[in-house]
Amino acid sequence: MFLHLGENVVVPVKDIIGIFDIETSMYSSDTIQFLRMAEEDGFVERITKEKPKSFILAEVDKKSKIYLSPISSATLSKRTQPLYYEL
């Protein structure tokens, strides 16, 4: 199963380590420092020019990758849940 992160970016759900809300995550200086260092090292991919609402930590080709997504973390999390239909 794949998760659509925005624009034309999809990632296998099995490769996702975590989905985080940008606003609430930025209260921690450790998270800010982590994202800054990751960007300096080239591990961050900005999906769109829109203001990001979430970031997704994934392992792609045995390397850590962070995607900045314009889609909320709540919406992305819901997209990872299997669909159940009532008969």
Give a description of the structure:
This protein has 87 residues and is of the alpha+beta class. The chain has one domain (2-79). The chain is 26% helix and 37% strand. The strands form 2 sheets. Strands 3-5-6-4 form a 4-stranded mixed sheet. It starts with a strand and ends in an 8-residue tail after the last helix.
Set down the secondary structure blueprint.
Blueprint: E1 2-6, E2 9-12, E3 16-21, H1 22-25, H2 29-40, E4 44-46, E5 54-60, E6 63-69, H3 73-79
Parallel strand pairs: 4-6
Antiparallel strand pairs: 1-2, 3-5, 5-6
Give me some keywords for this one.
globular, single chain, 3 helices, alpha+beta, two-stranded antiparallel sheet, 87 residues, four-stranded mixed beta sheet, 6 strands
Number of DSSP helical runs: 3
Total count of domains: 1
Structural class: alpha+beta
**Shape field:** globular
Quick recap:
This protein has 87 residues and is of the alpha+beta class. It has one domain. It contains three helices and six strands; from the N terminus they run E-E-E-H-H-E-E-E-H.
